[in-house]
Hints:
GO molecular function, one term: DNA binding
Low-confidence stretches: none
Protein name: Helix-turn-helix domain-containing protein
CATH topology of the domain at 306-424: Serine Threonine Protein Phosphatase 5, Tetratricopeptide repeat
Strand content: under 5%
CATH architecture of the domain at 306-424: Alpha Horseshoe
Mean pLDDT: 89
Pfam families: HTH_3, TPR_1, TPR_12
Largest sheet: none
CATH superfamily of the domain at 306-424: Tetratricopeptide repeat domain
Order of helices and strands: HHHHHHHHHHHHHHHHHHHHHHHH
TPR repeats: 230-263, 270-303
Distance between the termini: 51 Å
Structural class: mainly alpha
Radius of gyration: 29 Å
InterPro entries: Cro/C1-type_HTH, Lambda_DNA-bd_dom_sf, TPR-like_helical_dom_sf, TPR_rpt
CATH class of the domain at 306-424: Mainly Alpha
Helix content: over 70%
Amino acid sequence: MIGDRIKLLRNESGLTVEELADGILSPKYIQDIENNVRHVPDDILPELAARLGTSVDSLLGIEKETNIRKANELLDSALRYAYRELLELAKENIVRAKELEEHFSTELHTKLALVECQVFIKERKIKEAFDMIESIDEESVKTFNDLYFIYLRIYGALYFFKEEFWKAIMSFHSAINVKVNFEKYPFEVGICYFNLGITYAFIGNLSWGEQHLKKAESIFQDIGEIKQLTDTYINLGNIYFQRDDYEDALDIYKKAQTLLIYNSDLKTSSFIFHNIGLVYLHLKNYKKSIEYGNRALALKRKVNTFHSDLINTIELLARCNLKLENYDMAEIYIKEVISFIPKVESSSIRGTCYLTVGLYHKAIGEKEKYIENTKKAQEVYRSAELYFNAAKSAFELGDELNDQDLLVESARLFYQYHIKLKEK
């Protein structure tokens, strides 16, 4: 109440009741105000505020409420900017919000930490993001349903980047079970379904991946979120591609490409070109694949994307040239792939690269190096608990070589994969 604020500010200023009252009110009147039994006359407020070294709005408690509302709006906007990869705008809002931090409640401090986590994730500063989210007291954040939902979803994203895919799935499911205010956070809910969909697809469960991506698609369509809808179409296309539904994959990649008319994004364009090139590779239209691969690589080099984004297109171009028996050109790309492998954090991409290096050695007659690199791919997949990928590769190599040990290992890995699924 205003009386409590006046008394607190008077004591902080070192003023006596008499000094504060001098010339404007009686000391008794000031005491009654401080005891909340009398109101402050409107015409006295400016002078009283000035003597206490504050503003009228602050004295009335309006300034604090205004600043809290402003900080909330800044952090909500920063979260949206982070999702859209407008990181400079997100950081600017965070700085502006921190200027109001003296007014923060526990809820606002928690929201600030979560927004900073999301920015770190987009910058691939996974250690910094983990350190920050682990500094948040889970029991405290549980009291704020909406923030607890975001907290669990961000934990899932961090587990995904740390390649703890099964933990990621559990976190995303836990988030979905929280009673979040969907009207306030539809975008965040859509992101959670999106994350869950790509994680399921990543471990090889394409049907569950598609199911959750379709839920995300519906939400993003309803709220008119073009950027995330584009990314959802790209990932649905990836699922159709993995099912060998190449025509459906092409259709949805081109659907994503159409959306870029409303959301010009060179990085997203490069992903679409890469994926279309990959489809054409499997349709055995190698020249068309190289055309789209070159367009993707040019864009990726221009926007300076992460190592994993570059290497998968270089690997695509290597495979195309192997199919066309352009071994000299394939060798150039393979050398670049090999130089990139130690820099790539994604086990899925690193494993695929070893497979491609193996195919190159097979094509030029170096069978032992082919087997060695293929087994390296299997080990990478196995270490990351990508059991489906490891099992598939072991089966294909075992079948080709008529190696019973590899076929038994493949069966063991497939079993391990299904056991993991049942646990979730």
